[in-house]
Amino acid sequence: MAWILLVIAGLLEVGWSVGMKYTEGFTRLWPSVFTLLGIAASMLLLARAARTLPVGTAYGVWVGIGAAGAAVLGMLLLGEPVSGWRVFFVVLLLVSVVGLKLTSAQ
Length: 106
Prior knowledge:
By secondary structure, the protein is mainly alpha-helical. The protein has helices at residues 2-23, 29-50, 55-77, 84-102.
């Protein structure tokens, strides 16, 4: 169950990190509300997962999912540059997340 919570927390991190772009510096009400709720929910689920999982593993997986997801959505939705190297390093992040899962004691 901790891994499921952790993956959901990571996906929420993707949502709030991309959502920050739409808040325009937290000057737009609803995007700001949804972003803040996403931050709170993501952190809560991370904390719950870290009760069972090693904190270094939980945090690494959470950050990896968030960073990779934000990079992909930035390229797909926000017009950020796409290059072979960027894609390579996003894939490397995801390989690292899988590696942390596979080498975890839980």
